[in-house]
Amino acid sequence: MLALAATSAALAQAASAPVVELEVDGAIGPATAEYLEHGLKTAATRNAALVIIRLDTPGGLESSTRDIVHDILASPVPVATYVAPSGARAASAGTYILYASQLAAMAPGTHLGAATPVQIGGGGSPLGGGGGEGENKPAAADAETSKVVNDAAAYLTSLAALQGRNARWAERAVREAATLTADDALKQGVVEIIARDVPDLLAQADGRTVKLNGQPVVLRTTGRQVVIVEPDWRSRFLGVITNPNIAYLLLLVGVYGLIFEFLTPGTVGPGVVGAIALVVGLFALNLLPVSYAGLGLIVIGIGLLVAEAHAPSGAFAAGGTVALALGSLMLFRAAGPEYRLSPGVIVVGVGLSLAFFLVVIGAAVRSRRLRVRTGAKALIDAPAEVLRWSGYHGTVRVEGEDWRAHATSPLAPGQAARVTGRDGLTLIVEPEDRSPP
Question: Which CATH superfamily is domain 14-131+138-234 in?
Answer without folding.
Answer: 2-enoyl-CoA Hydratase; Chain A, domain 1 (3.90.226.10)
